[in-house]
Amino acid sequence: MDILRFLCGVLGNAVGLFLFLAPIMTFKRIIRSQSTEQFSGVPYVISLLNCLLYTWYGLPFVSSDNLLISIISGIGVVIEFTYVSIFITNGPKKERAKIIGLCALALILFITFAFVSLFALHGKTRKLLCGITLDISSTIMYASPLSVMVPNGLGTGLGTAQLILYAIYCKNQSHMTNEITDEFAETDLETTDQMQKLGCLA
Fold first, then answer.
1. How many CA atoms are closer than 13 Å to the CA of 45, on its beta-carbon side?
2. In a 3-state reduction of DSSP, which class is residue 45?
3. CA 79, 80, 82: angle at the middle one, nearest 5?
4. How far apart are CA 75 and CA 91, in angstroms?
5. Of 5, 53, 63, 187, most Cβ neighbours within 10 A?
6. DSSP 12-29
């Protein structure tokens, strides 16, 4: 069982490494163009925090026999920190400030997590609460791309509303134009009739 567990751990680490390296083509593009373009750095900051938490969780005094988790998560910390550094270096000033602020917040959260789990929790309680925290962190990490998708979704909805209003407005405007044209035509006919009557009288 120990051998099987070790092999599964090694396989999991290999898969985790490929997962961490998956965005490498994106960052090659960023470095080549020296611009983050429309990419968001938020998911990478959250992934960095998640890796820090998992590295802490895998340490022997938090959970025993999980050293492989600390190893792959430590590698993930290095990779995600590299990604975040590339974003800070190549991003616009506003985006750069946001990423730096998020990194500072992530560091504060990790230090708080480490101190609370180390000094306030003990034994199985420490492992349990750390595990629950990691589950929440992992869920947030996998949901983090929504930070880009949600504004786009709202933008799509607002854009659709604008198109509908434009279509209604154009239709009403066309109807109003036709009414105005008909009124002018009727006025012209009345004027012509009056002039003809005056001509006949003369």
1. 22
2. helix
3. 65
4. 24
5. 53
6. HHHHHHHHHHTTHHHHHH
Distance of CA 151 to the CA centre of its chain: 8
Q: 93-115 and 67-90 helices cross at what angle (nearest 10)?
A: 160
Query: Tens digits of per-residue pLDDT, 106-161?
Result: 999 999 988 888 887 777 777 778 778 777 877 777 665 555 446 444 445 555 65
Residue with tokens 């993930």: 76
Cα distances (angstroms) measured from residue 198 to each of 91, 96, 184, 186, 201: 79, 81, 21, 18, 5
Alpha-carbon dihedral of residues 33, 38, 39, 45, nearest 10 degrees? 110
CA angle 65-16-126, nearest 5°? 35
Is the CB of residue 66 less than 8 Å from the CB of residue 127?
Answer: no
Distance CA 101, CA 82 (A): 16
Full-model pTM: 0.66
Q: Which two tokens stand for residue 90?
A: 């190549």
Ranges of each domain in the chain? 2-144, 147-202
The token pair that represents 96 in the structure block: 């750069």
Place of tokens 């629950």: 132
Q: How far is CA 173 from CA 35, 98, 163, 170, 176, in A?
A: 44, 45, 15, 5, 5
Mean pLDDT of 10-30: 84
Which tokens is 120 given? 């306030």
